[in-house]
Amino acid sequence: MNLYNSDDVIIACSTSTASNSAIALIRISGFHNLNSFQKYFKLSLVDVKPRRIYYTDLIFNSELIDSICLTYFSSPNSYNGENILELSIHGNLLNIERILNIFINDGVCRIAYPGEFSYRALKNKKLSLSQIEGLDLLLNANSVFALKQGNSLLNGDLIFSYGEIYQSFLTHKSSLELMIDFSEDIGPEVASKQFNSSLNELLRLIEKLEKRVQNLPFNLLEPTISLFGLPNAGKSTLFNELLGENRAIVSPVAGTTRDFISESYSIEGVRYKLIDTAGIRETSNAIEEEGVRRSLLKLKDSFFKILTINPFDTISLALFKVSDFDLIVFTHGDLPGFLDKKNAFLSSLASAPIGPILVFPGNQNIKNLRDLINNKYLKCIGSEPILLDRHKDLIIKISDALSLYSVVASSESDVGIISHELTTIGDCISELIGIVSPEDVLNNIFSNFCIGK
Amino acid sequence: LYWKIIVPRGTVGDFMFDVLVIGGGHAGIEAAYIASQFNIKVAVVTLPEIGLGSAPCNPSVGGVGKGQVVRELDALGGLMGILADKAGIQYRTLNDSKGFAVQSTRVQIDKDKYSYYAEELFASLENVQIIREKVVSTDVAEGDFIVHTTDRSYRTKKIIVTVGTFLNGKMHTGCNQTSGGRVGCEASPGLGSLFSSIKTRNLRFKTGTPPRIDKKSIDFQLMEEQPSDSSVRNFHCMNDPFSRNLKQVSCYLTYTNQETMESIRANKEKSPMFNGQIKGVGARYCPSIEDKAYRYPDKNIHHVFIEPEGIDSELYYPSGISSSLPKEVQEQYVQSIKGLNNAKISVYGYAVEYDVVDTTDLFQTLEHKSIPGLYFAGQVNGTSGYEEAAGQGYIAGVNASLSVLGRESFVLSRHDSYIGVMIEDLVSNMRDEPYRLFTARSENRLHIREDNTLLRMYPYRKSLELTHNIDKFLENFVKEYSFLMDLCDEVSFSSSSDDFLKCFGDMDVSDLSGRYFVSELLRQAKLDPVKIMESVTRYSSLEISYDLLRVVAISKKYEGYIARADQQLSKIKKLDSMKISWQDIVNSSNISYECRLRVERIRPETFGQLKLIEGIRPATLAVVAAKAL
Question: What is the pTM of this model?
Answer without folding.
Answer: 0.74
